[in-house]
Please model this.
Amino acid sequence: MPELPRIVITGVGLTSPNGDDLSSYRQNLLQGVSGVEPYQIRHVGETLAGVCHFDSNRYQKRKELRRGTRAGSIAIYCAREATKDAGLEPTHYGKERTGIYVGITEHGNVETENEVHAVSQYDFDLSFWSHHHNPRTVANNPAGEVTLNTGLHGPAYCLGGACAAGNLGLIQAAQMLQLGEVDMALGGGVSESIHTFGIFASFMSQGALAKNDDPARASRPFDRDRNGIVVSEGGCLFTLERLDDAEERGAKIYGELVGHAINSDASDFVLPLAERQNRCMRMALEKAGMQPSDIDIVNTHATSTAQGDIQECMALSQVFGDSERTHINNTKSFIGHTMGAAGALELAGNLPSFNDGVVHPTINVDNLDPDCEVRGLVLNSPKEIGQVDNILSLSFGMLGINSAVIIRRY
Model:
């Protein structure tokens, strides 16, 4: 079997609750700045959420914003920022040779809820139902909106992977480059989850929606007093290229994707399984030709739920418990759970560690849960560790989907 081309990240475009570009996002992660704020939504009322404040008019006209979706707008912003950061026009390799692979948790609930509410104000007269509803709600909408905005003609679709979707978008992008289907790929994930009351209501009914008098302290993975998830919106798309192409044009390279894995628990609708998470990590390490002791940073998925955090920490201890080199952190403590964007956004927040040698912490851990004690946890304050060579980012989701990606210093 011929050796596959090496794949590198050459651009990052993102919007998060605490930063709309990698520089400000990273600075806020190092300075302990949360992006969680008070939030109101129909039928739920006062709650908390991670809200993005990016300039949606930077790449779209008002008419386009009215016709499209929030997820589409986030995807367009991230795609444009990612190619700009890579020093490329979206069409650099040709309109048909760029692929767009966007991970999503779900898509369409926001628009459907809005339309049902709108017609309810008119005694359910369906003549008031928007004719834009169908293109807004199809699962490929965010990726499709990027093509409309950029004029790209290559493959563009979404990958439904629950809260592991951000990693799936990245992995799919890399695989399509290795297959020669495209010459440049935009991969990652987006989420508009805070705009659907259903997701808040569902977590509330499960007793899994975070509450705290101080919004900035509501998301607290590993803490004994954690009480649930902070729902957030956001997005991150990476520009990926084959290493030879990136080197030929003198591109800035953030890192090389050297290992990845996706597997399934096949055990429960919502409860995770440490055994399968363990296996997912080991599969990614095997693909990268690495041992656990080769990993400098593990960015965890932990969402601040009682059982979810414990199961993940069990798996982490089983894989990395003997590694003195490995440091473990969490990004959701700053921005909440950005659902389909989580894997990509959380990886992005750790990529600058290759340059500055610093591990951003997990914040809001006042009393570490004894069941979450894992060797190498970085809590509340950044830690300087010197050279960082390898980062493992984990992302798991409902229906038992697990994902892991390993990025190596270039």
Residues 228 and 305 are 5 Å apart (CA to CA). The chain has two domains: 7-248, 260-405.
